[in-house]
From TrEMBL:
Keyword Ribonucleoprotein (UniProt): no
A Pfam family the protein falls into: Amidohydro_1
Protein name per its UniProtKB record: Amidohydrolase family protein
Residue ranges occupied by any Amidohydrolase-related domain in the UniProt entry: 81-416
Protein species of origin: Apiospora phragmitis
Keywords: Hydrolase, Metal-binding, Signal, Zinc
Cofactor: Zn(2+)
Keyword Cell membrane found: no
Signal peptide start and end residues: 1-22
Matches recorded under InterPro entries: Amidohydro-rel, Metal-dep_hydrolase_composite, Metal_Hydrolase, Metallo-dep_hydrolases
Amino acid sequence: MMFRSAVTPAMLVLFHVAIAAGAKLLSGGTMIAFDQESEQLRVIRGGSVLIEGDRITGVSDVASPLDTPAGVEFVDCTDKIITPGFIDTHRHGWQTVFKTMGSITTLADYALRFSALLAGLYEAVAAGVTTIVDHAHHTWTPEHAAAGLRASVDSGARVFFGYTFQNSSAEFGVPEQIGQWKELAAAMTSNLTQLCIAYDEWTSNPTGGNTQAVIDLIKESESLLTTHHVEGPWLLGNTPQDLHRAGILNSSTPTIISHASHLDVRGASLLRATNKHISITAESEMHYGHLHPTSHLILDQASLGVDTHMTFSTDILTQARLWLQSARYRVYQNTLDRWQIPAQNPFSVNQAFLLATRNGGLAVGCKDLGVIALGAMADLVVWEGRSPAMLGWTDPVAAVILHASVGDIAHALINGAFRKRDGRLLDSRYYDEVQDRFLASAQRIQNVLKEMPLPPQEGNFLTGSPFGYVMQVDAQRGEGAGYGPNFV
Ligand SMILES: *[C@@H]1O[C@H](CO)[C@@H](O)[C@H](O)[C@H]1NC(C)=O
Ligand SMILES: *[C@@H]1O[C@H](CO)[C@@H](O)[C@H](O)[C@H]1NC(C)=O
Ligand SMILES: *[C@@H]1O[C@H](CO)[C@@H](O)[C@H](O)[C@H]1NC(C)=O
Ligand SMILES: [Zn+2]
């Protein structure tokens, strides 16, 4: 049985004539599809997905549907698992250049030390991340800003490029940046990269001219907005309440509040009332110490992100797994603290899978992203089902969320086109020229950083809270043996 989309027969004829050459049938695999009506995952075994142009135009429970259009490329997915591409709703793409340089940093160190430019989204695509919301805060000069946008377009990933408005210098402040944003927006031709807005001064500068100018731009462009919200003692602000006070939360503009660490009840209610999403960056929040003590209570308005991927994993699969298990830990703790045995598991793999896929689509305001359904965008990942890690699975959702690694990704498609095939990225520029240029530039920048000592964290953090003692955990006996040498 073929489930056809709302595309009219006339459109289909047009489609087949025009692009049959590019059409593909992912055939014979197990799909983790999504039923838009019941809003539940739907597993289809031995079925197929038809891709025409940038969309999924058929989802079938047989491997070779009778009404498959002529000229379609068959891609044998027997024994494989087909999922939507994963969605990263918070990262800083330019920081690839610092890889491994932040292994023992906290958020306070990070704010002081790391800043420079690079573009490297191929790593994410190779890891099955097909959509990325980039909080691009390398807008120090017009050249840096434009280069980041260009790299996003070149990457072939679906990028929401959050141009950050900030007072970079006397010559290049928010008014100049808004001017450049409008010029760049007028010149955009990419179907995959969208120019968006990032701004972090909703609390520190709620009524200033810069903030008003950003509000005007948001209202005028209706472009996605993203902001960092970290409260608790961090006091970095940008709460949902502050955004609401600025008059920009209750609108159709997609808004992603990254981290939302220590989100409170009022903030959570506002997110629900205005249908806005947070981006939980599980690994970053544990690594840097923002933590996420309330985030498991707002998963219905949550998605997942990576954040500063130069410091840890770049893939959303790892984020989903870390978040799943750390949220389980937190909820179980509550029961054990009452000296009781947990009677059930609080957090299912289906929910973790939805956070990594569909919820990311909802966060960016697109219900056609992050799902395998008729008419959805054809961003897909095909996983090996017979690798050593995967062999023997029955539940494909559990297989992916709990057993797979990025090494199990056979293919990744974005907008209907293969970006990774048979385990290899299709963009040869990565392997040759870009790779060499990247390594040269990474070495140059890392050498400079090595010479910059981290200032001691004494007195107060920049928002006023005092620094506090952190116990060092040692796997070796003896006082202070834990850190050992630093291998950067
Ligand atoms: C922006 O920063 C520059 C220094 O980089 C400073 O001279 C200027 O006053 C600042 N402007 C605003 C509006 O904060
Ligand atoms: C972008 O989309 C438009 C309309 O959907 C289409 O005409 C155009 O060919 C697409 N461009 C690319 C580069 O895919
Ligand atoms: C959002 O706006 C709608 C109509 O514009 C209004 O009915 C609703 O109460 C508003 N919600 C909040 C939380 O302000
Ligand atoms: Zn961030």
